[in-house]
Design goal:
With about 150 residues, the protein is an alpha/beta fold. Helices cover about 20% and strands about 40% of the residues. The chain has a single domain, classed as D-tyrosyl-trna(Tyr) Deacylase, Chain: A (3-Layer(bba) Sandwich), CATH 3.50.80.10. The longest helix has 18 residues. The protein is globular.
């Protein structure tokens, strides 16, 4: 499982001209599933996202989590994070989980996150999404689980 986390001042995702998810201050997490990813990684990622200390404390150090700051998390499914670009100019996506199982896993991940952070929002698996992120920092982290 791969996640790209971008700290933001706000983020939203639009499908067919309609905003389907949006947050204020917090972060957007783009998530890709790989074929060997066990469901236990979903729980591990949610715990990591909620505890990740990438927000400033009173001293200006990155020492607070999204929970500490009452922020939001916007989850976006993004199989392209699993791309292999080593063999030429056209990326291969064979390293990404097949769409059917990945869609189920994404919905499970969204459910787990919303059960612990009701302000969480998400994109729509398989949709042509327009993602708008106003970066804060810029702070971007790649999380590799599994």
């Amino acid at each position: 499982m791969i996640a790209l986390v971008q700290r933001c001042l706000r983020g939203s995702v639009e499908v067919d001209g309609v905003i389907v998810g949006e947050i204020g201050k917090g972060f957007v997490a783009f998530v890709a599933f790989e074929p060997a990813d066990a469901e236990a990684l979903d729980d591990k990622l949610v715990a990591k996202l909620l505890a990740l200390r990438i927000f400033a404390d009173d001293a200006g150090k990155m020492n607070k989590s999204v929970v500490d700051t009452a922020g939001g998390i916007l989850l976006i499914p993004n199989f392209t994070l699993a791309a292999d670009t080593s063999g030429g100019n056209r990326p291969s996506f064979t390293g990404a989980m097949a769409p059917g199982p990945a869609a189920a896993r994404f919905e499970r991940l969204v459910g787990l996150l919303r059960s612990r952070l009701p302000s969480a929002a998400s994109g729509r698996f398989g949709a042509d999404m327009k993602v708008d992120v106003v970066n804060d920092g810029p702070i971007r982290l790649i999380l590799k689980l599994g």
